[in-house]
Amino acid sequence: MSKIKIAELFYSIQGEGRYMGVPSVFLRTFGCNFKCAGFGMPRGEMSHEATDIAATHTMIEAFTEYKALPLVSTGCDSYASWHPAFKDLSPMIEVDGLAKAIVETLPFGKWRDEHLVITGGEPLLGWQKAYPDLLEQPCMAGLKEITFETNGTMRLTSAFKEYLTKWKITNHRLNREITFSVSSKLPASGEPWKDAIKPKVVCDYENYGTAYLKFVVATEQDIEDALKATEEFRAEGFKGPVYLMPVGGVESVYALNNKTVALAAMKHGLRYSDRLQVPLFKNEWGT
Ligand code: SF4
Fold first, then answer.
1. How many CB atoms lie within 10 A of CB 86?
2. What mean pLDDT value characterizes the chain?
3. Residue identifier of the C-alpha nearest atom 6 of ligand 1
4. Is residue 45 a contact partner of residue 187, using CB atoms and an 8 Å limit?
5. What is the dihedral of CA 166, 172, 173, 174, to 10 degrees?
6. 98 forms bridges with which residues in the sheet?
7. Per-residue pLDDT tens for 205-248?
8. What is the pTM (predicted TM-score) of this model?
9. What's the pLDDT at 287?
10. How many other C-beta atoms are found inside a 10 Å radius of the C-beta of residue 83?
11. Nearest CA to ligand 1 atom 2
12. Which of 82, 125, 191 has most ligand 1 atoms within 8 Å of CB, for mutation?
């Protein structure tokens, strides 16, 4: 039986992108290939918030559950889903039990209009090998829509591609759909362009589902970077829509630039994505 290391499992409303406003189960897998310590920092500087919290946790085992972890205003707002210091908070779960736990979060105990978001961390790391097993569990049969929230750097494995092809063909008439929400990381994240902008990888996602790009931006420079990256993706043949989304895991930061980003999206003919979990739920864990 396959297992997946799960950082969080919760039911909420999707706050971002194509399915904004849709009731959704979020499955947050553990592990990421990035750190994104540059978010919310002056260009070239890196946030120490996550590493400081991790140091405290390592020294005195300060936190016994996710809900107790502090929110950060700089760096990756999902730091506990990849920082090795917090791996003890993320249990390895067999997919049969996990599927049941997913369905138990649904308001009616069965799939109706809810969609499943597999997020991270980076959900397309090694866990690709376990998803077929998870999605084929009997209680997942009523699920119609799945989104993988990815940073767009991980190639799909041959085995997973084979499964997705079968899934697409089998489920086409049932309107079941796979979406890749690709948040490629711009230089503001602190990650180097050559490692983060991977047009070939992302274009391949379009062969197995619907894909869109979602760039997190705060400044004019970020918007220019998003436009430059969009050109690179288009040059490679990427067809899907492109969203601009304001930076801000905490409300004070988000509120500073959401309208500016919306206006920039209009100006450049791009889509705007809010991050509803911030104004609605203060981006607390489990939302
Ligand atoms: S890719 Fe996403 S989860 Fe990974 S460090 Fe960056 S923001 Fe965090």
1. 21
2. 91
3. 36
4. no
5. 90
6. none
7. 999 999 999 999 988 999 999 999 999 999 999 999 999 999 87
8. 0.93
9. 67
10. 21
11. 121
12. 82
